[in-house]
Amino acid sequence: MTALAEQGMNVPLAFPSTSGALIETVEGVQVDVISWLPGQMLGRQGALDGVADRPGLVFQLGQLLAELHRLSDAWTPPADFVRPSWDADGLVGENPIWGRFWDHPHLSKDERNLFIAARDQARMELAGLVEQDYGLIHADAITENLMLHEGRLSLIDFDDGGWGYRDFELATFLFRQVEAEDFAELRAALLEGYSMRSVVRPASLDLFLALRALTYPGWIIERIDEPGGAERSERAIRQAVPLARAYLEGNG
Predict the structure, then answer these.
(1) How many whole angstroms from its chain centre is CA 130?
(2) Is residue 252 pLDDT above 70, yes or no?
(3) What is the CATH number of the domain that holds 91?
């Protein structure tokens, strides 16, 4: 975030402690302090609250993500910079970053078989990618992590940031828009905004939409017993099933 801010991006700033560290450990708990950004959250579960020109705002988001990736590629990380990798292993390996989604305890036999088939197909497809754009990504550009202030979007909540496929970054936002009536228009707007940096292949985006959807049933496994966990679990499965099925059907 510091490197991005130094290059002109509006992101939260990390404040060092009196000892100069960005993270302190207090009684076994990691503690850090970051700045607030002005504005309001776009909305929950993909809602674009009070946004009149939805495609226009999503176009701006495409530009913002393109700039994020451009600046990230121009930055040389220090030797001790370590972040998770949203690569093939991190998404569909034996132990994905967000958990073994195919082992979710609430899956029916057919749903589990569907998730395994999608996982295996994605493994083969990712193994065959030779020119896929890969680098540092935010990895959680959902509406809850987008602030709107005076018509300008900013990203917060970089805790999932790491190395990953840039198309996965775009799919993360689009996943919450799949059921919107104007999804096709929003998708086109996002890709048009991002085209200032790179052109995204439709088939590639379909792959990463399915992979993004599958991460959520894995994420909720350890959180099912938390308040609201059961509802979130049901929603994660309900949203992932049609995208996994559509992905497999698109691959014959």
Answers:
(1) 22
(2) no
(3) 3.90.1200.10
Q: How far apart are the first and last CA of the chain?
A: 42
Is residue 93 located within the same domain as residue 4? no
Number of domains comprising the chain: 2
How many angstroms separate the CA atoms of 85 and 40, rounded? Answer: 30
Amino acid at 131: E
Residues 39-61 have pLDDT tens digits of 999 999 899 988 999 999 999 99
Q: Tens of pLDDT along 172-203?
A: 999 999 999 999 999 999 999 999 999 998 88
Domain that holds residue 19: 1-36
**3-class DSSP string for 117-171:** HHHHHHHHHHHCCCCCCEEEECCCCCHHHEEEECCEEEECCCCCCEEEEHHHHHH
Which whole number is the average pLDDT over 150-177?
Answer: 96
Helix (H) or strand (E) holding 179: none
